[in-house]
């Protein structure tokens, strides 16, 4: 049985799409949902989906090994970031080489990096008058949105599209593709 841990800081719609994708499977399970935000909507989704949820604070995340120890003790095989808003520290990245992925709501390398998250991304895309946006799924390294790209998908934009319209189009791509890309990745894990 392969185990996945999902990190999220907000609503958790991607976390829910991933949980539902694997719900009927006996070879892969979503073992944990972790968040830094005690008000995150993902906590209610975890409760409804019967997935254990763990809330941690900045001190626990950056000054202790509690999160790393939890992932190791739970024998997590793949760490999935799904709208997680904090920089993953090196010790965590090094514990999961090529086994930590993130989804970014734009076509990296553009519109990425510090400060580029959530609505800020879609506002920048609209302000630039881009004809397309999309998603990037990538391995996580020490730098925001800098890891090796695993998958990208695009959506066409119209001049009249607002940042909210772009967000809707991009989230549809996220929910369609992230679970499938995760499935393909973890199904190829040998050990
Ligand atoms: N080491 C890594 N950590 C994280 C990565 C990564 O690639 N490497 N990806 C991010 C997710 N992300 C974009 O996909 C992202 C999230 C947040 C930020 C950001 O600027 N955050 C703010 C704080 C925001 C807040 O606390 O609400 C900041 O750092 O000032 C940029 C990109 C997850 N972690
Ligand atoms: N740079 C990171 C970033 O902006 N991530 C984005 O946060 C949203 C979380 O939505 P969700 O909580 O409904 O899954 C998603 O659109 C994800 O791409």
Automatic annotation (TrEMBL):
Residues engaged in binding (6R)-10-formyltetrahydrofolate: 58, 102
Family matches, as CDD domains: FMT_core_GART
GO cellular-component term (any): cytosol
InterPro entries to which the protein is assigned, alphabetical: Formyl_transf_N, Formyl_transf_N_sf, GART, GART_AS
Annotated keywords: Purine biosynthesis, Transferase
Catalytic function, reaction form: N(1)-(5-phospho-beta-D-ribosyl)glycinamide + (6R)-10-formyltetrahydrofolate = N(2)-formyl-N(1)-(5-phospho-beta-D-ribosyl)glycinamide + (6S)-5,6,7,8-tetrahydrofolate + H(+)
Segments passing through the bilayer: none
EC number from the UniProt entry: 2.1.2.2
Pfam families linked to this entry: Formyl_trans_N
Residues covered by the Formyl transferase N-terminal domain: 3-182
GO MF term list: phosphoribosylglycinamide formyltransferase activity
Biological pathway: Purine metabolism; IMP biosynthesis via de novo pathway; N(2)-formyl-N(1)-(5-phospho-D-ribosyl)glycinamide from N(1)-(5-phospho-D-ribosyl)glycinamide (10-formyl THF route): step 1/1
Site (Raises pKa of active site His): 145
Residue numbers annotated as active site: 104 (proton donor)
UniProt: N(1)-(5-phospho-beta-D-ribosyl)glycinamide binding residues: 12-14
GO terms for biological process, alphabetical: 'de novo' IMP biosynthetic process
UniProt function note: Catalyzes the transfer of a formyl group from 10-formyltetrahydrofolate to 5-phospho-ribosyl-glycinamide (GAR), producing 5-phospho-ribosyl-N-formylglycinamide (FGAR) and tetrahydrofolate.
Family: Belongs to the GART family.
Protein name listed in UniProt: Phosphoribosylglycinamide formyltransferase
Organism: Persicitalea jodogahamensis
Gene: purN
